[in-house]
């Protein structure tokens, strides 16, 4: 027999830039690390971490020019 779980809470992942709904749906037990989140509305891709609905935006270091 299949074991039944209690229904877990789900939410749509919101874009950290424009706060609109993305195409990613998450559950309360979802853990994302270094996830490239794309927003179809503002067309930005943001690198995020997410644990129990808490989103942290990862700031990528700017590329430095090489000097000779």
UniProtKB/TrEMBL annotation:
Pfam families: Cys_rich_KTR (PF14205). This is Cysteine-rich KTR.
